[in-house]
Amino acid sequence: MTTRNQEGAPAGACHDTPAAQGFAMPAEFAPHDACWMLWPQRPDNWRYGAKPAQQAFIEVATAIAESETVFVGVNDDQYENARVQLPDHIRVVELSSNDAWMRDVGPTFLTHPDGRLAMVDWEFNAWGGLDGGLYFPWDKDRRIRTKIAEMLGVARFTVPVMLEGGAIHVDGEGTLITTEECLLNANRNPDLTKAQMERVLRESLGVETIIWIPRGCYRDETDGHVDNLACFVAPGEVVLTWCDAPDDPQYAISREALDVLESAIDARGRSLKVHKLPQPGPLYIAEDEASGIDRLSHSHPRQPGDRMAGSYVNFYIGNEVVVMPLLDPQRDDQAREMLQGLFPTRRVVGVPAREILLGGGNIHCITQQQPRCR
Predict the structure, then answer these.
(1) Cα–Cα distance measured from residue 368 to residue 374, given in angstroms and rounded to the nearest whole number
(2) Cβ distance 308 to 280 under 8 Å?
(3) Key word Membrane present in the record (predicted)?
(4) How far apart are CA 337 and CA 277, in angstroms?
(5) Domain count across the chain
(6) Which of 69, 195, 305, 351 has its Cβ near the most Cβ atoms within 10 Å?
């Protein structure tokens, strides 16, 4: 693996990798200094000029801002609109993007025992490039990590591997979960073997044990991001989206994942405790929801009747709150009660999130935590 430091000087030797320097990716449930988001505005992805989606993003940002600083990056032509709509205590910064998926285009933050903050700058090709990618171009998205590193004045390790933040989850104690469907997809890194990808993850994120789940959620257009299927809620504990209907394609996917997780041993030698979180729906795009979207040849189509990859696992763990998507009135309360039991020291806040799901993701996908450092 080749890495470069913030100044851009080549650093090909193994001792220059983030892990060799003592950096590691902390768990999302560890303390944060801030959360980063982006402002939605793509008319070919968000209906009606993204106005309904903007309201959902505002609710997510407001809920997270109860216990940590929230930065919202905005393109210049939407800056004034975003500044007027967002609460005053949310920091609006000019940070141009092609779309609003900060989890995937933003930094993967690292911390060091001595208190330093750093980040990994992966490659990005809009979830597949010209082979199944969701839009073109992605040039503004590709510059976001560099800009945030400049804003914060932190070290940036560039890793020439295609990887999105939603493709990985860590427990902060040496264990990472991901899916083969995404990280080993030919439209990401066709020349990397599984063993080579594991080496990249260990050297870049300071993890030791990598648990591979075969597939992500059914019809997940990111090619199976793990953050829509399963995530760590504590060391040794994972929540998994669950389906009890045998005729639903998600049924087999969830059981396959359960088999992997229950047979895995983490970096500390523990077996994992798996909590089953029922999926909403199934959920489908309605006729009126498919209208109001610009139809462009270079963007992912959204058609009436298309199934959406709805999941309650796609939540954000804040310092004092857990912000979860409200997606199905028949199951929202059950999901909220279960999450409250898993996070007894945090308040679970439900936010109506169907508008975010209509764009292809959810709350975890539009947020990126900046871990606390000294």
Answers:
(1) 19
(2) no
(3) no
(4) 10
(5) 1
(6) 351
List, in order, residues 6 or more apart from 42 with CB less than 8 Å away: 50, 98, 99, 100, 135, 299
Q: For residue 30, what are the contacts with CB-CB under 8 A and spacing of at least 6? A: 172, 371, 372
- The order of strands in the sheet holding 69-74 is 91-94, 69-74, 32-38, 368-371
Residue 300: its pLDDT value, please? 78
Q: What pLDDT, in 10s, does the model give residues 323-354?
A: 999 999 999 999 999 999 999 999 999 999 99
Check residue 26 and give its pLDDT: 98
DSSP-assigned letters across all residues of 79-136 = HHHHHHHS-TTSEEEE---SSS-HHHHS-EEEE-TTS-EEEEEEE--TTTTTTT-S-S
**Interatomic CA distance for residues 202 and 207, integer angstroms:** 5
Q: At CA 150, angle to CA 59 and CA 72, rounded to 5?
A: 10
pLDDT tier for residue 374 given thresholds of 50, 70 and 90: confident
Dist CA 175 CA 24 (whole Å)? 11
For 155-166, b/e burial (b = at least 16 CB within 10 A) is bbbbbebbbbbb
Would you tell me how many other CB atoms lie within 10 Å of the CB of residue 303? 9
Query: Which among 35, 231, 365, 373 is annotated as catalytic?
Result: 365
Measured CA to CA, the distance from residue 241 to residue 227 in angstroms comes to 10
Our answer to whether residue 365 is catalytic in this structure is yes
Q: Model-level pTM?
A: 0.95
Strand partners, 347: 321
Block residue for tokens 């063993």: 195
Query: Domain range for residue 210?
Result: 3-371
- CB-based contacts of 278, cutoff 8 Å, min separation 6: 241, 242, 243, 244, 312, 331, 334, 335
Separation of CA 374 from chain center: 25
Dihedral-angle region of residue 242 (phi above 0 means left; psi in -120 to 50 means alpha; beta otherwise): beta
pLDDT digits (tens, 9 = 90+) for 2-35: 444 443 333 333 348 999 999 999 999 999 999 9
CA distances to 39, 229, 236, 323, 353 from 367, rounded to whole Å, are 11, 17, 24, 11, 13
Beta bridge partners of 91: 71
What are the φ and ψ backbone dihedral angles of 92, each rounded to 5 degrees? -100, 125
CATH number for the domain that contains residue 171: 3.75.10.10
